[in-house]
Specification:
This protein is α/β, with parallel strands linked by helices and 524 residues long. 28% of the residues lie in helices and 21% in strands.
């Protein structure tokens, strides 16, 4: 409970930080873009992800470098630390130059540094009495963050082909990270004592591993939040100990994303290294996932339930997935939609929403960029009302279906009969890509059949649906857009459709294919 209260204290402080005016800034201030999560409604299980500017005085800020060892017992972990360390060193140098304190915390290696002035600096800080006792390790707090982390690391987390048993392999911090004259070195509560001595209230945590030491060490997130510090995690300067052979059976890098999300939900916001040194967000060499952003704002077919499950079970190896949800109190508001600007693929499950033009602009610009767009079910009428204009102050896009999907949605047949599905005549490679591990005889439409004919000449049908006594209708197709991009749309997507593993696999295959093949629609 105390930790929870301290987190709420951070959030109230954060409001003040985010309102810092430009007039109060100076060249040494740290101008950050702070990402945090807030639940869409109590116990909804859905979280808005929003980013806002914040300004921290460098002189009131410390960077804590957590366990960036020279070697790890897991060779894959050692390799990733080696990739990250040079970039981390550039971040540290930039922060140091502006006046931030750098605290190096390579646990269990302090004998290597015992006679250095940086070690003595940390030791010299006077002990401070605290309301909440300082701990050598802060374990999972079930009152704050639930019963478990979102990944199973009970096997130690080594993701090598032949996992290695834990042993102490480290002797010092990674040599690519420079330790300057005025830095400090510790692996204990001395870090907090030093912060108090110097009047430092802001802490940027980076290092490894997010699910273990970055959360639990006495100088790291849980401890610092509990002691009332303003804490952020630099989310691209971290890694997890996670083996994809363990639940939830996603890629190693998705495992890291899940722990970062957990931290943003329950402990503190995050920032990127780009805030301090510019450039592109750091990514590990083997992380080739595409960034899929899902807009989910419809209640008719319960995709707010089916899509998160689909993403967990089907997309965790190939995609980095971000969800944008509608506001619980204002249906025509999608907080965090600015993340679309960083997407590789846009996935739309929206029904008859009109948005502020500043929000709809992100969708318009994404489409104009020529990047791939995927839509299911109500995406054909995502951004317009039925036969009436948008309310004052809001914007619509009634041509979205025609311009993006090449569709012609006009209505749907009555609910009742299931839709029989047939596959179009496709070339061998495309058929293999889309229907790998799919038994097409098991595909069926559980929702009412949409009336979408005729499609644009730029559209190529993949699946056709029929119900008794009605003309067949396309239910899945690619479209070559005028902006040069490719879209994929299916009018399937009823919640019962997602119960069919063959539909879920088909949709996953289509997502993978369109993400990697710009000319997908030309390969029919």
């Amino acid at each position: 409970m105390l930790a929870r209260l301290n987190r709420l204290t951070w959030l109230s402080i954060g409001v003040a930080l985010l309102s810092t005016t430009q007039a109060r800034c100076n060249d040494n201030d740290l101008r950050l873009h702070v990402r945090q999560r807030s639940e869409t409604a109590s116990e909804s299980g859905r979280w808005h992800t929003t980013t806002a500017p914040a300004t921290w005085k460098a002189s009131e800020t410390a960077i804590v470098v957590c366990d960036m060892w020279d070697k790890h017992w897991c060779p894959q972990a050692t390799e990733r630390v080696g990739q990250m360390a040079p970039r981390m060193n550039e971040v540290i140098k930039a922060a140091r130059k502006r006046g931030a304190l750098i605290i190096h915390c390579p646990s269990d290696t302090l004998d290597f540094y015992k006679d250095t002035p940086q070690r003595k600096l940390a030791q010299s800080a006077p002990v401070v009495e605290t309301t909440i006792p300082l701990q050598r390790w802060c374990h999972l707090d079930k009152t704050v963050e639930g019963a478990t982390l979102p990944i199973d690391d009970s096997d130690g987390g080594c993701d090598c082909d032949t996992p290695i048993k834990s042993f102490k392999a480290w002797s010092r911090q990674h040599p690519a990270i420079e330790i300057a004259a005025n830095d400090a070195i510790t692996d204990s509560a001395e870090a907090f004592y030093l912060l108090k001595q110097k009047g430092i209230t802001n802490v940027i945590v980076m290092g490894v591993h997010t699910n273990m030491c970055v959360l639990g060490r006495p100088f790291s997130i849980r401890q610092m939040v509990q002691q009332g510090q303003n804490v952020v995690l630099m989310r691209d300067m971290t890694d997890t100990m996670y083996n994809p052979g363990m639940a939830p059976f996603v890629s190693h890098f998705t495992g890291t994303d899940l722990v970062v999300e957990h931290i943003e939900k329950h402990w503190c916001p995050t920032i990127l290294s780009t805030d301090l040194i510019g450039g592109e967000e750091f990514r590990f060499a083997k992380d080739d996932r595409k960034h899929l952003v899902v807009l989910c704002a419809e209640k008719e077919y319960q995709t707010n339930e089916s899509l998160p499950k689909f993403a967990r079970e089907q997309l965790g190896h190939d995609f980095r997935v971000s969800f944008v949800w509608d506001d619980a109190n204002e249906a025509n508001n999608l907080p965090g939609i600015d993340t679309v600007a960083n997407a590789d693929v846009l996935f739309v499950s929206v029904r008859r929403r009109t948005l502020p033009e500043a929000q709809l602009k992100f969708v318009r610009e994404f489409v104009a960029s020529g990047k791939p767009v995927v839509g299911i079910r109500t995406a054909s009428h995502a951004f317009c009302l039925r036969e009436k204009p948008a309310p004052e102050g809001l914007a619509d896009w009634p041509e979205f279906d025609k311009q993006v999907f090449g569709g012609n949605y006009s209505n749907h047949h009555k609910a009742g009969p299931k839709t029989a599905i047939t596959v179009a005549d496709l070339n061998k490679d495309l058929k293999q890509a889309l229907f790998n591990d799919v038994d097409t005889s098991q595909l069926v439409g559980n929702g009412s059949l949409y009336v979408v004919s005729p499609l644009a000449e730029t559209a190529d049908t993949i699946l056709t649906g029929t119900i008794p006594s009605q003309s067949p209708e396309p239910v899945a197709w690619f479209n070559r857009r005028s902006d040069g991009g490719i879209s994929f749309y299916t009018s399937l997507g009823h919640i019962d459709d997602f119960q069919n593993v063959h539909f879920a696999t088909f949709l996953k295959n289509a997502l993978k294919y369109i993400a990697k093949n710009k000319e997908a629609a030309n390969e029919k």
